[in-house]
From TrEMBL:
PANTHER family: NMRA-LIKE DOMAIN-CONTAINING PROTEIN, QUINONE OXIDOREDUCTASE 2. The lineage of its organism: Eukaryota, Fungi, Dikarya, Ascomycota, Pezizomycotina. It comes from Trichoderma gamsii. Pfam families: NmrA. It comes from the Eukaryota. Residues 3-251 form the NmrA-like domain. InterPro entries: NAD(P)-bd_dom_sf (IPR036291), NmrA-like (IPR008030), NmrA-type_oxidoreductase (IPR052718). This is NmrA family protein.
Amino acid sequence: MAAKIGVFPASGALASSIVNHSMKFFPASRLVLVARSPEKLTEWNQLGATIRKADYDDHSTLNGVFDGVETLMLISYASFEIEHRVNVHRAAIDAAIRSGVKHIFYTSLGFAGNLTDDSVTHVMGAHLQTERYLSQLTDKITYTSVREGLYSESFPLYIGWFSLQNPADEITIPHSGTGPGVTWVKRDELGEGTAKLIYSFVTNPASFQYLNKNVLLTGPREISLLETVNIFGRLIGKSLKIREIAVEDYLLLPQVRGKYVYHGVDLSREWTTTWQGLRNGECAVVSPSLKEILGREPEEFETTIKALLG
């Protein structure tokens, strides 16, 4: 019987992309898809995938949920807390080991993009700790940490919650927009690239080049926040500008209120460390890996945004 490939949690946007692309390489019967709301996975179940229920926030549901899975795609917990996020990641990793999983792919993030284990950003904290935890378990399991570059579609997080549909004239963030930028990358291409990494490992683990390593997936070029905004302006036909404000002023903006609350804790101030990470060039590294994996140049940021506009 062919070894099973698991995905947990399997219902988010990146996970859905990974699953959809994985089905081009594997029969659905080889996939074990785990989610807190398995009813969201009905379509894949009808295609032959095994559907199971588990919740990061209820560790008891993880016991045995990965049984029969040899390779697990572990999608990181959807927040940017540190302690809680690390704890749930460790619980899932430990459960995977107990179930006999042999290799874990983990979706990390593209900060610390030069593949170091250091970042000034709060959002990268749990990823770095999870990567370190995996690296300490190589006597029990192998791993690959996929540092997924910043999604093109996630630009509102870094551009002061700017809306393409209801654009303000001025973008106010604690950053001038100049200096090192972002290697924006289309989310579905990250999903495709990650699925191809899984296929490469499963079909020939002996020659897999990212065994017990990190791999960075990015877009084709670095784009400053100022150029990012200029692209928006060009596409919507409106003159836009960035006005740099103090962190304290950013925290008072009405569009920020409530955007960064997790488990009752407001992490708005912690989020502002992302702009320091950008200043340090953490997201400015252009990696050739995604191009090599896809066999083509990743999509340009402007092309992705134009498609969002319809």
